[in-house]
Description:
The chain contains 5 helices and 13 strands. The chain is of the alpha/beta class and 191 residues long.
Amino acid sequence: xxxxxxxxxxxxxxxxxxxxxxxxxxxxxxxxxxxxxxxxxxxxxxxxxxxxxxxxxxxxxxxxxxxxxxxxxxxxxxxxxxxxxxxxxxxxxxxxxxxxxxxxxxxxxxxxxxxxxxxxxxxxxxxxxxxxxxxxxxxxxxxxxxxxxxxxxxxxxxxxxxxxxxxxxxxxxxxxxxxxxxxxxxxxxxx
Length: 191
């Protein structure tokens, strides 16, 4: 008898617990060291991008800030922005300084709305083909779909190494695949 595959909801629950345990096992120095290792892996892939969207990390998420702080002249950082809990996610030029509807920081409403060339995407887990499990609200899937309708953009997932699954994750029709994933130790081209 075949064992049924776990649902995406079950996978998310398990992956969130594992991410939480991993992040809590890191002291501040090791965490900063691992996050800094993203810079030489990601930064060369950002050459030519004018606007790079990041995110203000949740407690257990790997931070994009070392990458965003290393952006060159002529490049600007943007962050997700929500008018309200039910509104579509858009991007505004940083810094992220005010609480969003869920308490995470976002830019102030008076910052310019922008269309990023590259979006650094947080994740709960992902496979090497670019299928991502997020927190289940679909904000990034909808935002990436909308952005890709207007012009080509690159979506790069940022993750701790332990968040990458070697087994494929089942994709739903609305899932927007990542173009690449960066961890502190590797760059994964998702094809």
